Automatic annotation (TrEMBL):
It comes from Seriola lalandi dorsalis. PANTHER family: RHO GTPASE-ACTIVATING PROTEIN 27 (PTHR23176:SF104), RHO/RAC/CDC GTPASE-ACTIVATING PROTEIN (PTHR23176). This is Rho GTPase activating protein 27, like. One of its GO terms (molecular function) is GTPase activator activity. InterPro entries: Rho-GAP (IPR050729), Rho_GTPase_activation_prot (IPR008936), RhoGAP_dom (IPR000198).
Length: 253
């Protein structure tokens, strides 16, 4: 009887090895193919935004990013708030100092962030009747800017400016170096706040009162330090100076 050679089963073993090794490879190819097809069908971020599934927020957005998106140099939300206050809030006692209903302010924030169209946000709608809700939302918008209206890089320069004998001229030069969204938004805001102050006999908001409210909101250091209390004094002084010298600081000459 012929003895079987230990190599007689080699072909079948090789075939088995080949099948075994090809199994995982084949599965990996299938997974890669499916993944490639999925990625090819995946909608672009822009198309998802256009369909309204993802919206860019207004609050907490960098000023230049928001203005670029809206194709303007002043955020639409800021302009709407300013118009609403000047239309029906200049004589309201404690305007910008008195807090509005926080829940309603948050509802307005959500509407601004998630509404279909920012231009369709109507602040004359009855649900925003309380003017302190409008002013509270505007202050919240300014506080939540990732970089304040007075950029971090200019903080120390503005602090130094109020100590110079030619501080108004120096302040004007600093303002002229600001990015256009910062400059134009700042000009609109300070012009508006001057109108608020013109009605101080009825709203009891003097230059000093407005400066105290808006100083820390518009101007802050990038990192907090032990000089925080001193900075608060300087912040108010800078805002007060710019309110008093608005015409000179923002003149084109």
């Amino acid at each position: 009887m012929e003895e079987s050679s230990p190599f007689t089963k080699t072909p079948s073993l090789l075939r088995l090895g080949t099948q075994t090794s090809s199994g995982p490879d084949s599965e990996q190819r299938r997974v890669r193919t499916k993944l490639r097809r999925f990625l090819q069908r995946r909608p672009t971020l822009q198309s998802v935004k256009e369909k309204g599934y993802i919206r860019d927020n207004v609050f907490g957005c960098h000023l230049d990013t928001l203005c670029h998106r809206e194709n303007t140099t002043i955020p639409r939300f800021v302009e709407k708030c300013v118009r609403a206050v000047e239309r029906r809030g200049l004589d309201v006692d404690g305007i910008y100092r008195v807090s509005g209903n926080l829940a309603v302010i948050q509802r307005l924030r959500h509407k601004a962030d998630h509404g279909n169209k920012q231009e369709h946000l109507d602040l004359e709608d009855g649900q925003w009747e309380e003017i302190h809700v409008i002013t509270g939302a505007l202050k919240l918008f300014l506080r939540e800017l990732p970089e304040p209206l007075f950029p971090f890089s200019c903080f120390d320069k503005f602090i130094a400016a109020i100590h110079y004998s030619m501080r108004v001229s120096y302040m004007k030069d600093l303002v002229r170096t600001l990015p256009l969204p910062n400059h134009d938004t700042m000009e609109l805001l300070f012009k508006h706040l001057r109108r608020v102050i013109e009605h101080k006999d009825s709203n009891r908001m003097s230059v000093q009162s407005v400066a105290i409210v808006f100083g820390p909101t518009l101007l802050r250091p990038q990192t907090e330090s032990a000089n925080m209390t001193i900075h608060m004094v300087f912040q108010s002084q800078i805002v007060e100076l710019m309110l008093n010298e608005f015409q000179t600081v923002f003149s084109q000459s």
